Amino acid sequence: MKKNLYGLLTFSIALLFGALLVAGNLFVYQLQKKEIFAEFENAQATELKLLEQFAREGLITQNYALIEWFFQQWGQEYNKVVSLSLHSQQGYSLINYQRAVAAESDMLVSSKRIKLHDGIYHLKMSSDTVGLERKLDSLLVQLFMVTVGTTMLLVILLWFVFQTVVMRHLQHEGKRRLQVERKLASMEAGED
Questions:
Q1: How far apart are CA 168 and CA 162, in angstroms?
Q2: What are the mean pLDDT values of the chain's consecutive 10-residue runs (192 residues total)?
Q3: How far does Cα 139 stand from its chain's mean position?
Q4: At CA 132, angle to CA 36 and CA 123, rounded to 5?
Q5: Could you give all domains of the chain from N- to C-terminal order, each with its CATH number?
Q6: What distances in angstroms separate CA 149 from CA 18, 78, 104, 138, 160, one per listed residue?
Q7: Dihedral of CA 13/19/22/28: which sign?
Q8: Is the CA virtual torsion 46, 48, 49, 53 positive or negative?
Q9: What is the pTM of this model?
Q10: What was the pLDDT predicted at 6?
Q11: Is the dihedral angle over the CA atoms 71, 75, 76, 77 positive or is it negative?
């Protein structure tokens, strides 16, 4: 009966510990997700500024072929880029790069306006976030493994503590009880 109580107590503590670990892991996961996406957005904004500078120079000199070549090279070099486009104020597509392979996951779309003496141009870049999602999936697996490992370690530790401390105490109490019962039995036998 007492072994069942200790087993239930060990299970309850491990379950509570596991639930707290899962809650903590979800908190860490959400923070990491937010941070990873913020870093990705910042990197894309920086890349877009660089593309804007290059497009501005090409637009001033009206060297559209150079801009198109640069966009093609940029898109091929950075596999996260799904599309790059440059449109005039009237909506005419001046340059358009489209990756051959469609996005595997959600896309992050950033745009920038380029103001020049002859009008406003719109630069737009779309990036695939599959790399981020793979990192987050890997993080989730790692957090799960840590949770399972830590919970198992706690269960083993609790079992060991109960076996060594509690069970020894119960065995010692059982021996003392037997001694007292024998003494009482011998005292009762001596009275008869």
A1: 9
A2: 68 83 90 92 92 91 90 87 90 87 82 90 91 88 88 82 76 84 81 61
A3: 4
A4: 85
A5: 12-134 (3.30.450)
A6: 10, 38, 32, 16, 16
A7: negative
A8: positive
A9: 0.68
A10: 67
A11: positive
